């Protein structure tokens, strides 16, 4: 026999209204003939229809009593059910039906009894496709173009480009070239290492990452990126040709250059990068070029990072080793696993300022191993009395600034904008 309690979804401790109604019918059969004349089966089912759920406390004493269902109970207060003619999950059929039927509850009823509904998952925007080492050169160029990198392949006058590199950067070869309009340009392609056979795709991705980061940098103290090009089956980065070359070589050719002003301009470039959430990762004199009007401009973004949570153009994780410039590297870079940071940039900025003012490399006369040991031991470069004379306002103030840039604890170092402002104050005598 069907268990009506389970069928309508009632708790097991509550008597089923249908069962109670049938019990009344059993009483009807056994009653005297006069009572049979007064009651009909329809009366019995009408009783069933008018039942109201009641709390277990009210039902426990007299579940079989007719009075248990005489009046309306406040089911909402006790069970969270609304005091309606039905009960959770079902409603009774109309009075004209001879069978008791169960129909699904309406949406209004479900809302009233606060039945939990399946949450609608939030719609998420499709994440941008990441550039990976598996992509072809054409695919990479297409993605870069879609994200604002200008393709100037057709503008290059290949017939006037140098056959061999005229300069070798830390990670790239520089070719001299021309655009069809006569503009002289530098063309940078990543070096293909001797052990990189089969890893050309990784070099394409690395070049794409450098190019994309560089494309986001627009400032008077950052070398302009004219655009990208497909050059001899490689991704090339095209920029104005800098006749004066690197800062390291240019300083000796221009002894009258105001070196304090040069330091301010370098710090301006670094501060702009950091404000744009870009970490350079390899600041040093040989990565700073000098324009025709003797303005220092940051270059070489091969180690750079865009510090974005949701980058517009992501790149897959790289396993390629990061090149390290030992004399400019912060101690935490040696200690690992930090690759680069804003604070490490400031450490390198301090070493670059030392390089500009003194005209010599940091830790001059020492090999890289000795430099690394001194860096880890917090032994700073020796102070030159010629360039940082003790007892003078400029010498003492600038040396104090540099030693703070080289603090072993990254959090104790000033910001790039702070370095810029302090040097300005030293120049103006306001420090």
TrEMBL record:
Gene3D superfamilies, alphabetized: Transferase(Phosphotransferase) domain 1
Q: Which InterPro entries match?
A: Kinase-like_dom_sf, Prot_kinase_dom, Ser/Thr_kinase_AS, Ser/Thr_Kinases-Pseudokinases
Query: Domain of life here?
Result: Eukaryota
Region entry Disordered, spans: 55-95, 107-128
Q: Does the UniProt entry include the keyword Transferase?
A: yes
Cite the PANTHER family for this sequence.
PROTEIN KINASE DOMAIN-CONTAINING PROTEIN, SERINE/THREONINE-PROTEIN KINASE TNNI3K-RELATED
What's the protein here called?
Answer: Putative serine/threonine-protein kinase DDB_G0284251
């Amino acid at each position: 026999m069907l268990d009506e309690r389970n069928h309508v979804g009632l708790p097991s401790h509550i008597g089923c209204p249908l069962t109670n109604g049938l019990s009344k019918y059993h009483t009807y059969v056994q009653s005297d003939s006069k009572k049979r004349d007064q009651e009909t089966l329809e009366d019995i089912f009408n009783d069933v229809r008018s039942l109201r759920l009641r709390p277990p406390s009210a039902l426990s004493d007299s579940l079989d009593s007719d009075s248990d269902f005489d009046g309306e109970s406040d089911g909402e207060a006790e069970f969270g059910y609304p005091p309606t003619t039905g009960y959770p999950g079902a409603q009774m059929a109309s009075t004209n039906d001879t069978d008791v039927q169960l129909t699904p509850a309406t949406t209004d009823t479900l809302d009233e009894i606060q039945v939990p509904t399946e949450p609608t998952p939030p719609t998420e925007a499709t994440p941008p496709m990441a550039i990976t080492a598996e992509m072809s050169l054409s695919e990479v160029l297409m993605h870069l173009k879609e994200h604002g990198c200008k393709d100037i392949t057709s503008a290059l006058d290949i017939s006037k480009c140098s056959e061999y590199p005229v300069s070798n950067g830390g990670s790239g070869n520089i070719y001299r070239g021309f655009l069809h309009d006569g503009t002289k340009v530098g063309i940078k392609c990543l070096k293909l290492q001797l052990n990189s056979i089969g890893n050309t795709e990784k070099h394409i991705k690395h070049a794409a990452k450098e190019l994309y980061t560089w494309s986001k940098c627009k400032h008077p103290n950052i070398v302009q990126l004219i655009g990208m090009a497909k050059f001899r089956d490689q991704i090339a980065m095209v920029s104005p040709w800098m006749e004066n070359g690197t800062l390291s070589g240019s300083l000796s050719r221009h002894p009258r250059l105001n070196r304090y002003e040069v330091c301010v301009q370098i710090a301006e470039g670094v501060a702009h990068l950091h404000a744009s959430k870009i970490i350079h990762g390899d600041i040093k004199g040989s990565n700073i070029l000098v324009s025709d009007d003797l303005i220092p401009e940051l270059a070489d973004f091969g180690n750079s990072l865009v510090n974005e949570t949701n980058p517009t153009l992501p790149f897959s994780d790289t396993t390629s080793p990061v090149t390290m410039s030992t004399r400019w590297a912060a101690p935490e870079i040696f200690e690992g696993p930090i690759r680069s940071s804003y604070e490490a940039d400031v450490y390198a900025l301090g070493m670059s300022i030392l390089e500009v003012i003194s005209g010599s490399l940091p830790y001059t006369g020492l090999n890289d191993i000795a430099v690394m040991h001194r860096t880890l031991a917090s032994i700073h470069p020796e102070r030159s009395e010629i360039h940082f004379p003790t007892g003078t306002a400029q010498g003492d103030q600038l040396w104090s600034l540099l030693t703070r840039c080289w603090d072993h604890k990254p959090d104790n170092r000033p910001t790039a904008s702070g370095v810029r402002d302090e040097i300005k104050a030293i120049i103006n005598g306001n420090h």
